[in-house]
Amino acid sequence: MSRFVVTGANGLVGRRACALLAQKGHAVVGLGRGVRRVAGAHDYEEVDLTREADVAQALSRLAPEVILHCASMTEVDACEKAPEAAYAANVTATAAVARGAREAGAHLVHVSTDYVFDGAAGPYGEDAVPNPGGVYAVTKHMGEQAARVLAPGCAIARTAVVYGWPPVEGRLNFGAWLVKTLGAGQPVKLFEDQVVSPSFAENVAAMLVELGERRLGGVWNTCGGTVLDRVAFGRALCEVFGFDAGLIVPTKMADLKLSAPRPLRSGLKTDKARELLAEKPLALEESLKRFHATWRRAGEAG
Hints:
Elements: E1 3-7, H1 12-23, E2 27-32, E3 43-46, H2 52-62, E4 66-69, H3 76-81, H4 83-104, E5 107-113, H5 135-150, E6 155-159, E7 162-163, H6 174-183, E8 188-191, E9 195-196, E10 199-200, H7 201-213, E11 218-221, E12 228-229, H8 230-241, E13 248-251, H9 271-276, H10 284-301
Parallel strand pairs: 1-2, 1-4, 2-3, 4-5, 5-6, 6-11, 7-10, 8-13
Antiparallel strand pairs: 9-12
């Protein structure tokens, strides 16, 4: 068993990684900005990752063997409107965590995104050359470079359109938003021209945990195993959840005035993860079945 630190422990993937690690018997400390918002068997400390001295002090004291860096500013349009905040969260914080990992002799798993690519020729393999556009994408790519430089041998784990239930308090992920809206009988506009790799949060967390446990380095696409457009995802979700697919209104990205650019033909190839990881990227059908099961359990418990 190992000593793990997980950043972004209140977030969609971080909370699931903490729970899985604790379940497997590891010693886990989750780090988050603000008070603990998720109950669990792991310890928790409040740390502002953009304050480099605080990060260094915490990691020196905790002496982790592995760090899963899940924390990030992921709201694409918010990043575009607040570039200083995006830089602090996605670059400064990553550099601080990477330095702390190196000083502690810990293996770093840094979570990144398919948005480091421009979306001109997806889906992308691990060896594709990034070409980010927009503040979110650029800062996430800079975070990758900071991790590589400051924590040699780290893993860069790219994921995409992560969804799960329950959602993070105060913010609905794509899948949770669809369930809430379609479940209420309300129409949703979905992009028919954006191709993505929707990723079930539990599956992503399990792949990150494996990268940490096995101390694997290099670039990994830790995302869903099916590449499709958002309309097709919405219709598949309707079939599993029993919602009316007629509520889905196909639209083109250019029809909406979005603050930040988004890659159109994106998505990630998962051949490497399927071949080399015990935790395989899930195909869409299985992901949605598990998503539906967690949603039903939460409803029964609540």
